[in-house]
Amino acid sequence: MSWLFTHQTLRRGMTAFVLPAALIGVVVATSAPGAAAPAPDPLIGAAGSVAAMAGIEVPATYGPETAIVVLGYGLLPDGTMRAELGNRLHAALIQAYMSPASPVIVTGGNPRNGVTEAQVMADWLNIRGVARHRLHAETEAGSTVQNAEFSARMMAALGVTKAVLITSADHMRRALDNFLAAGIPVVATMTPDVAPLWAQPFGTEK
């Protein structure tokens, strides 16, 4: 099946997603660590209403049959994230907020200083409000091909049939090809230039 018929792009201009303070308040209040999982409708409705008033387009909402799959990026020798991985995670955070029923798969091995990319990614998202039960760390992949193959295996175990793929813009074409080859229907993509700038007040990595 041609990806053109199954793939909905979510890439937008950067300035279109610098969300207003009102929407930041909605996201923080409903997604704080340790808080009860929010019901999808109030969260999506509030975010969508504020965004609509500001003329801002937000990502589509997906359910539990669709995983949010975030591809890793090489860690620094001390096991901390490089800036590009932080950018990918900001994009993932937006999609996780907009699709609160979707599981989130973070994929990447390549350990540095005893920690893998996926472990660092899962911790980053959890600290910023994504519930631990939603996070699934695939810690063995050492390449994009393995990201796709091992994520497909994890999705099958979770009973998930589709994916929103998140990686860098210059990596997306290759990643999309690999995921489709692994038999994963990719229903949307998101890249950091979708502008997760509104997440920076409570999430920026220095």
Q: What keyword list fits this structure?
A:
single chain; 206 residues; globular; disordered C terminus
Written account of the structure:
The chain has a 6-stranded parallel β-sheet, with helices on both faces. The protein is built from 6 helices and 6 strands. The radius of gyration is 16 Å and the shape is globular. The chain has 206 residues and is α/β, with parallel strands linked by helices.
The total strand number stands at 6
Count, helices:
6
Distance between the termini: 42 Å
Average pLDDT across residues? 78
**Global outline:** globular
Strand-residue fraction?
5-15%
Helix content: 25-40%
From the alpha-carbon coordinates, what is the Rg to the nearest angstrom?
Answer: 16 Å
Topology (elements, then pairings):
Elements: E1 8-9, H1 21-30, H2 40-53, E2 66-71, H3 83-98, E3 104-107, H4 117-127, E4 135-138, H5 144-158, E5 162-166, H6 172-181, E6 186-190
Parallel strand pairs: 1-6, 2-3, 2-5, 3-4, 5-6
Helix pairs in contact: 1-2, 5-6
In short:
By secondary structure, this protein is of the alpha/beta class. The protein is built from six helices and six strands; from the N terminus they run E-H-H-E-H-E-H-E-H-E-H-E.
